[in-house]
Each structure stands twice: as C-alpha cells, then as structure tokens.
Amino acid sequence: MVIRPASPDDAAGIAAVHVAAWQTAYRGLIPQDYLDGLCVDERHKQWSRILLKAEEVHYVAEEDRIVGFSVGGPARDDFGASTGELYSLYLLSEWRRGGLGRQLFGRVAATQSLRGMTSLYAWALEENPFRGFYEGLGGRICAERETEIAGKRFGVVAFRWDDLAGLIARTQNVNAIT
C-alpha cells in the first residue's frame, strides 16, 4: 500500500472511490435514488478542479488502484485562526477498519501541523455509521448543525482535536486505537 500526495491525474480514481464509498457507507441513511444517481463522470469533473487548489492537501492510498483518499485545508468555519479542517476521508468498503483511514487522516493532520495549525476539526453526519472512527481518535463534538442532501434534512456534528500532535501520534500507532 502506498499513501502519497494526490495529483490532478488522480481525479478519476478519487471520483470512483468517492461515489462507491457514498453508495456503501450511506445506504439506508441517504435516499437510495440519490445514491444510485451519483455519477463518477460528474465527480471526476469536480475532483479535477479540487485537486488544483494549492491551499488544500490531498492524499491517495493505492495498491494497484486508488482505494481511498483524504483532503484537508484551512477551516471553512470560525473555529479559530490556527484550526485546520479535514474536508473528506473516504475508503472503498473492503479497505475500511484496517488502519488505512487513520493513516490517511494522519497525513492530513501532519501537513496541517507543518502549516502552523494547532487543532483540527471534521464534519460528519450525525447518523454516520463510521462516526466512531472520529470518536476513537479522541475527537470531541464541538458544534452541530443541519444540512440538506437529496431534499432531506440531516444533522451534522463537528469533531474537534485541540491537540494536533496527539492526534498525529494516534494515527501513526495503530495499536493505540481501541
């Protein structure tokens, strides 16, 4: 397994993971017709633009293809000047729960630290079946709001890590996570 910075050439692979991850992770939560309508070609166009944003950090995990990705950057909410944000973290279903998500998250956290950030946060659907991932890494809920997806209202929560160095250490030591 290789984890490396993403390039614009990775847009198609990231798009495929993004769509597949949503379709499996959010089945039964997000309306099925919305999930069925997700289009890799449309996501490819979006990712082609996103991967050009220099203020963001983008990582991919690949074996013989891209199997996961993580994206972070400056905080988009007012959580403090030295706070960064994890924007996205997705894995193909067969790669979940094996430590790869921690590694991808750790890469974003480490890069944010190098950029002067001392804390980090990430938004997740309140009913996200994988929110325990953030809790297991020591994230504490610091904010709540609602968002709309496919015409349906969903609660979202922001997990925050005030000790970025501690978060980085937890993502590097798989045995430290229970």
TrEMBL record:
Q: Which CDD domains match?
A: NAT_SF
Q: Which residues form the N-acetyltransferase domain?
A: 1-163
User: What InterPro entries does the record point to?
Assistant: Acyl_CoA_acyltransferase, GNAT_dom
Its protein name is FR47-like protein
Q: Which PROSITE patterns match?
A: GNAT (PS51186)
Molecular function in Gene Ontology: acyltransferase activity, transferring groups other than amino-acyl groups
Which Gene3D superfamilies does the protein's record reference?
3.40.630.30
